[in-house]
Specification:
Layout (H helix, E strand, L loop, with lengths): L1 H8 L3 E3 L7 H9 L5 H7 L5 E3 L4 E4 L2 H13 L13 E6 L5 E5 L9 E6 L4 E6 L2 H6 L1
Antiparallel strand pairs: 1-2, 2-3, 4-5, 5-6, 6-7
Length: 137
């Protein structure tokens, strides 16, 4: 399903072998955030999606997801935003500094949204309710 969707939207997208069993759980434990079902399903089809024409990681590899989330949630380099990224799960990049993110409200899963984290303002701009909705628009 995901490869077909991305292939339609991004004809030159590069796909990778699926993540091995246990990697999703490992990632969740390392970053302390849940990985939503849509994103987990995507990782079981491909361990990342790269769109070379735009120099854009639509979806990072699971290792990069871990690395980037640990950085965004703990680094003093981004402290100048003066904000907590709380429940934001970063999963990709637009190639211009903005990051793709999922706001996963643990207290209210119905409030989950998918959108863009604007690197200039340090603001999350939620746009749609699910990962599928985000890439299907």
């Amino acid at each position: 399903m995901w490869r077909e969707l991305f292939s339609e939207k991004f004809p030159d997208a590069v796909f990778y072998p699926p993540v091995p069993d246990g990697e999703i759980e490992h990632a969740q434990a390392k970053i302390g955030l849940p990985i939503p079902a849509d994103l987990s399903e995507l990782y079981f089809e491909t361990n990342g999606v790269y769109f070379a024409d735009a120099y854009m990681w639509i979806v990072w590899s699971i290792d990069d997801l871990i690395k980037e989330n640990i950085y965004m949630h703990t680094s003093k380099d981004i402290a100048f935003y003066g904000k907590s990224f709380g429940n934001l799960l970063f999963y990709g990049s637009l190639g211009n500094g903005d990051l793709l993110a999922i706001n996963s409200d643990l207290a209210s899963p119905a409030e989950e949204s998918v959108g863009i984290w604007d690197h200039e303002e340090g603001e999350y701009l939620g746009q749609v309710a699910s990962l599928r909705d985000y890439f299907d628009k």
